[in-house]
Structures are given as C-alpha cells and as structure tokens.
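Our preliminary data section would be incomplete without showing what the modeling component actually yields. Below, a chain of 80 amino acids is followed by its predicted structure, encoded as tokens that our downstream tools consume directly.
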Amino acid sequence: MGVIVYWIIIGAAAGFVGTRLLKIDLPLPQTIALGIVGALIGAVVLRMFLAVLGVAAGFIGAILGVAVLVFLYKRYIDKT
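Predicted structure:
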C-alpha cells in the first residue's frame, strides 16, 4: 500500500516538473494524472535498464514518461 502512495507522490511531482519543462498549461488534476501515468510507464521502462540507481531511476523515469505523454498530448489532443 505504501508503494502506491509513493508512486502517486512521485507522479504528481513528475507531472508538475514535466509540464513546466515542456511549457504546457494543464489544470492541476490533469497534471497529476499525467504525472502518475507517466511515472508508471517511465519507471517500469527505466528500472529495467538502470536497476542500480534505485529510487533515482524511478524519478528520472517518471519525468521522462511525463515528457513523452505531454509530447503526445500536445501533438494529438491539444489543438490550440
């Protein structure tokens, strides 16, 4: 149960960082949701390659996952 809360917190932080780095303005709930999904995707992929780094790999993977999701969001959904 604690791991789920951990990934929610990491995902929310990664969503905030990722949306600010890529200069996308989303409401807070979407930012958090984007961060959580990105954290799960990025952490799983990056942990396979960088298992030695532990928690740092998860956070880096979360930010990379959010960056990919924000890119896809801007490209296919956000038509402003």
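Helices lie at 2-21, 28-49, 55-76. The two ends are 39 Å apart (CA to CA). Preliminary results of this kind motivate Aim 1 of the renewal.
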